[in-house]
Amino acid sequence: MRKLMIALASATALLASSAVAQEKIKIGAAPYGLNAEFMQIWAAAMQEHPAVKSGEVELTVFDGRYDALVQQDQFKTMVTQKYNAIIFAPIDVDAGAAAVQSAVDAGIPVIGSNTRVNSDLLTSYVGSDDTISGYMEAKTVLDKLGCKGNVVILEGPVGQSAQISRLEGNKKALAECPDVKVLEDQTANWSRAEAQTLMENWLTAHPKQINGVIGQNDEMALGAIEAIKAAGLDEKSFAIAGIDGITDALRAVKAGEMTSILQDARAQAQGALDLAIFHAKKGNYKPQSDIWATYKDMPWNDGKDKNYNVPWTPVTADNVDKLLATRK
């Protein structure tokens, strides 16, 4: 009987140990919103990560609905439910700091992705330098105009890091062309519909005066194109640029209607998830995404780096078909 009890105790201990070993890592992804295609690509890439598909990671993707308070409530949920790590793309560079603080206070590592937050408490960050893309897109517009004429700027949500940094890049390019006048500059909140309405109003207010459109994302640039077409104007007579490389923008680039710069949502998402797993497992993890092999200039470096910078890729006639082929 004594031997039987010892055997049963040993079996129970082994089962318990096995259950702990097989327990899934619980990770939450908190993007600022899922309305637009870019963040949908970002979220889908999370779900396609090898560790999620194998069942090693239990991933929950929240919808921040473009609201800092909603994101703070989502953090409260993840803290209460004891998530092992959080991936954060904040809507507001300042308001997001309190959410990060709450998670770190609970011992949960927070990995930034895509948009930044004013906090030194992030464990790591995977994203792209928005100042560079803001300069690149504005320069394509200004080069097409020969540094002369009038432009309008469609900005992202005021207070988000991408809006702040892309505007900085826009202004840097504009400073190189002092003869170019900015007729209008307003937020359209990353929205195609809002941008279309703004552009319709601007075309009415400034008839035959607008020569270029600097859209801080593709959705807004596409909204401007729709407004131009609706007004019976030739969109190809305007210099129009956007950022992200979403599917409709790729088609518009191919049609000669605009320029765009690819922001690699997949690399940002899967890179952040690899780092989240790494820190959730206290460093006992090797990255599983192929993005580290894709971007040789962004080495994994044993997960030690604070910032991982995913480069921008201008969409061109040479690569647009290949990029379109990656979209379902």
From TrEMBL:
All residue ranges annotated as the Periplasmic binding protein domain in the record: 28-281
SUPFAM superfamilies tied to this protein: Periplasmic binding protein-like I
Main subcellular location: other
Keyword Nucleus included in the entry's annotation: no
Signal peptide: 1-21
GO molecular function annotation: carbohydrate binding
GO CC annotation: cell envelope
Subcellular location: Cell envelope
Alphabetic keyword roster: Signal
Family: Belongs to the bacterial solute-binding protein 2 family.
The name this protein goes by in its record: Putative xylitol transport system substrate-binding protein
